[in-house]
Amino acid sequence: MRGIKLFLITFILAITSFSMTGCWYEEPVESNIPKFEVIIAYDRFGEYIEKSKDYKGDMDILYKEIIYDPIYKAFISGGEYSNLAKGYIGGTIRQIDDMEYKLKLLKKEKVEEIVEDALKKSNDLLNGVDTTVYIFPNTSEYNYLTKDLGGVVGVTAGSGKILLLIDPLNEQWKTILNYTVAHEYHHSVWSSRKYEFEGSILANLVFEGKADSFANKVFPDIEVPWVSSIDPGTERSVWNPIKNQLSSDDPELLQKLMFGGGDFPRWSGYTIGYHIVQDFLKNNSDYSIEEWTKLSSTELLNKSGYK
Q1: In Å, how far are 37, 198, 269, 276 from 297, measured between CA atoms?
Q2: Which of 35, 84, 111, 145 is most buried by its number of CB atoms within 10 A?
């Protein structure tokens, strides 16, 4: 009996020790969620609003001093695509009442929480990097950018740098915002991986197609107009003349293809790029998001089966 008691005591102690130090007890696992910071510079915008109301000088100078220069230096400068991003905030905002009203709406709607939630959902599918999202109220000066895009336009300045212009008066803005955040998040993660960008027409088509395909995975119920802007017949008529120019880096051709011009309807390139990637995903279901994100545009096209 004594032997049995000693065995039981030893066994219990062993089990207790194992449960505290082995697989029965799990130490907290460090989260792989990057740091996400969403900024609307209410104080800076407020200063500009107050000073501009009775300002008699050059509004361009005032805007540059209070809004553009500080934000560019703190947020955009140094990004891989800073020249592209700065064009979205470079124009002086003169519609002060419009700006003030939209800032109040964005604050009321807690837009920062919407963006942060979309970033977290995106990170669940593709682990990213520390990311700052800077939000501008989309005033009437910038309506040409957002009016056909559901009230939201985004641009990635580089790894971890996303700029959003939001028009809270557009009925679709909350829905489109989620999708746009996921789209730009993919661009940001792609930039952080330092993958080679060929700079060709094909590279741009696939680059946007990947971002839209990723956003579709994060928010599959959200429909956006630029990925279905042309019907199949029109898509063939656009593809036929450009399929032999895919290695070109002609910026004028790219501009027309993506945004419309000449024989190319608006957003043709976005639709084609999305369909190339979607065909790839249908025919290569074993690839993870990380794996197809890093594929070169040529390899992805060749494996897509896109006709």
Answers
A1: 31, 8, 14, 10
A2: 111
3-state secondary structure of 131: strand
Backbone angle region of 258, left / alpha / beta, with phi > 0 → left and psi within -120 to 50 → alpha: alpha
Question: Could you report the per-residue pLDDT of 33-81, keeping only the tens digit for each?
Answer: 899 999 998 999 999 999 998 898 999 999 999 999 998 888 888 777 7
DSSP-based three-state secondary structure for 168:
coil
Q: Are 303 and 284 in contact (CB under 8 A)?
A: yes
What one-character DSSP code corresponds to residue 127?
-
Q: CA 61 to CA 158: how far, in whole Å? A: 27
Question: If DSSP codes are grouped into helix, strand and coil, which group holds residue 230?
Answer: coil
pTM of the model: 0.87
- 42: tokens are 């209410």
- Token representation of residue 68: 């553009």
Tell me how far apart the alpha carbons of residues 40 and 102 are, in angstroms, rounded to a whole number: 12
Alpha carbon 41 to chain centroid distance?
Answer: 20
Helix ranges, the chain (H): 2-21, 42-53, 59-63, 69-71, 82-86, 96-108, 111-125, 143-146, 173-192, 201-218, 232-242, 251-259, 268-283, 289-294, 297-304
Q: List, as one string, the DSSP characters of 21-88.
A: HSTTS-PPPPP-PPPEEEE--HHHHHHHHHHHHT--S-HHHHHIIIIIHHHIIIIITTSTTHHHHHTT
